[in-house]
Amino acid sequence: MNLMQFMVSIVLFSVLGFGIGFILNMILKTTWFPVVIGVGIVVGALVYQQIVPGIWDALILGCGMAGTVASGMTIQTLRKKGYRMF
User: By three-state DSSP, how is residue 51 classified?
Assistant: First the structure.
């Protein structure tokens, strides 16, 4: 994997994690459930497929999880500020 692919992957996984987590938070009205789902999917896929991720893959997956956590924090902040939609 070259450096450009790595950088694009980090941005892509972070934005995907944030977007999917934000949508799930709005639909399910929970704050941290998408984080639990995301960790479960990643761990389940790695264990089921018996994949040992390299350092680059782990960094990319970690950035996806960081995006999911950021969506939970964003929803929590919006709820505290009084937005009833969230």
Answer: coil
